[in-house]
């Protein structure tokens, strides 16, 4: 699937893409009293519960930085990946009726889910920055570099959604398997704990986790007001590009077979 063809199809079907994203918003917030406000409240409520549990019960803390900001930064980014990849995984199977009727580039469906959750992700940045300011963590010019890691996270998530949506067409058990995978992935990502708490030889394995690289990049800026190193830039770009390309290749190679597994 050439990049040129992808871009051409994207422009051609951008109206449909907007409609799919709009439909997801309407379905998600239908008959909801608070509506979009849940996008703001959800990460805050999660943070409050996790902060109480891990700071008071398990006595987790972060030396030199605010634990709430540390927790919410990781939580917001991981939640985006978790929700978008889960919705993206079921997007093709969930739209089989539409795929059978008209020709539509099938990657539009996982992409629309990632964009839909991405809009929610941007909304969750509002409570994140409220907490950053309220706790006195402060802002710095390096915050201008955050769109880079957000873009890397988006590309990585789209790649994973393409891979997962392909597998789920042929293996419906993937919906249950991925629930276990994402639970394990949550605990292997230092969202609520400091990676330095782990045995030194095991840290190298943890750092192979792409989500660790993305979250660590953001925390370097938000918590420490430092410019990420070239290695951090490279690691984020590497995982984003590699997984995105693998996702495109896997999806393109198998998309013509989807029709036989309705």
Structure description:
This protein has 262 residues and is mostly helical. The chain has one domain. 74% of the residues lie in helices and 0% in strands. The protein has 11 helices and no strands. It has helices spanning 3-12, 14-29, 37-57, 67-94, 96-101, 108-134, 146-170, 174-188, 200-206, 210-222, 230-254. Helix 3 packs across helix 4 (67-94). It is globular and about 60 Å long. The two termini are 23 Å apart. The model has no long low-confidence stretch (mean pLDDT 84).
Short description:
The protein is built from eleven helices and no strands. The protein has one domain.
Q: Note the gap between the termini.
A: 23 Å
Describe the largest sheet.
none
Structural domain tally: 1
Principal-axis shape = globular
How many helices? 11
